[in-house]
Write a structure and sequence with these properties.
Blueprint (H helix, E strand, L loop, with lengths): L1 H22 L1 H15 L2 E2 L9 H7 L10 E2 L2 E2 L5 H18 L3 E3 L5 H24 L10 H11 L3 E5 L16 H4 L1 E5 L10 H11 L3 E5 L9 H11 L2 E5 L4 H5 L15 E5 L10 E5 L4 H4 L2 H4 L6 H14 L2 H23 L13 E5 H5 L3 H10 L2 E2 L1 E3 L7 H4 L2 E5 L1 H5 L4 H16 L2 E4 L6 E7 L2 H16 L9 H4 L6
Parallel strand pairs: 1-12, 5-6, 5-7, 7-8, 8-9
Antiparallel strand pairs: 2-3, 4-10, 9-10, 11-14, 13-14, 15-16
Helix pairs in contact: 1-2, 3-13, 4-13, 8-9, 14-19, 19-20
Bound molecules: D-serine (DSN).
D-serine binds next to loops.
Length: 491
Amino acid sequence: NDRDLEQTSTIAFLAALDHLGEKCPPVAQGILGELKKQRNSLKLIASENYSSLTTQLAMANLLTDKYAEGHPFHRFYAGCENVDSIESLGVEAAKKLFGAEHAYLQPHSGADANLVAFWSVLVKRFEIPEIEKMGQKSVTALSDEQYESIRKKFGQQKILGMSLDCGGHLTHGSRVNLSSKMFHALSYGVDPKTLLIDYKAIEALAMKEKPLILIVGYSAYSRLIDFSIMKEIAHKCGAVLMVDMAHFAGLVAGKVFKGNNNPIPFADIVTSTTHKTLRGPRGGLVLCKKEFEEVVNKGCPHVLGGPLPHVMAAKLVALQEAMQPDYQTWAHQVVENAKTLCHALKAKGVEVVSGATDNHLLVIDVKKSFGLSGRQAEKVLAECGITVNRNMVPFDKNGAWYTSGVRIGTPALTTRGMTEKEMAKIAEIIYNALKETKVADDPKTGEKSLANSVTSEQVIHKTQKEVGELLQSFPLYPEICIDQEMVKERR
Ligand code: DSN
């Protein structure tokens, strides 16, 4: 049956491509170009994956035409029966998969999911009590003066999250993001010696600052987090515990992160993307305790535009896929692969930030290991057919543009079927390519450049060949035959 489904998906994919080739060739060519590019490179970007064709097709249809503001069975538009059905099934699937009390599938991204969470906490813990103190029932009943007095106090509320250079996310209070403008944003880092989360230091800061929200979660931290300790800290300082599990949602769903490493039982609100380890469509979701259900369901109009029914349909497909037993096997393999890659790189003397990995990613310090900036390492690896992204290391002196690190993740290649043997080979390929890369001088200043580097043609070709050989045994979307993909040029 799964096989039939896959074939149907493939036929539909090819038909769509053919149709687009006639109606809008640049789009068909872009899709085809991306397929070819992804087939021919080793995708090691920790936040990327390969969704199923079924997931992709659920997004590509007329559900996109429907407005459905509100939430299931409670809409501001007529004719939402089909969206109600899809969204409510998605909500139930998310609750079941993660063991959550409530789920909200409308956020368009992880950043949007975080905005929904922030605004829900502000409304629930700050705005509603203020309105009650004024003897009113709702925000719309306030006088202009009353409303203005509440509005002025919004920006005085505090959040405490992990800093960007230590592995946190932009939306957890970085100065370049709205989160630091909505809130008085404070951050915690990692221990400068071990580069591990320091629970005692977080507790001391949280007790001093008493934030409204304690944010836990990361984009570039490779070790386990004990959420029971974070819950205790939040409880002691009176904060709401919000966990952004965008990076590791698939490891929670796949039962790799259990007990104290599973945030769901401990956090008041959990946010996520749906396209990273969760392996679904590009989008976000929020899970929360009952207490926040009503306010989270008002994500639109609080901060979101109208829901995307076609993407929620794809989220339902992906959530159902994540409930299949082979998903758990896949999730465990993702972590085994990351550990193997990490050990193999360390064995060659490469400096791994925080010493090891317990999840799907690792950050290597390319400055300490190879004398390169992250940008230089990222560029040479891309030329060789290996896609990674440059990343700051804790307390990085090279800043966010050049960086001193490279983040490497295994979800996508695990979806392609690779296991420990291939990871050991990939570590060797990466090490050899970076070892042979030399920093160039900046043509303007004559000093060592952070942007330019030199790698011989010979090394690039050798590495490209090794990457090609490795990829041969792991075809991407093998059901899609390249001959059938040729898009007719229409003039
Ligand atoms: N851009 C994502 C990542 O790469 O981790 C986070 O939003």
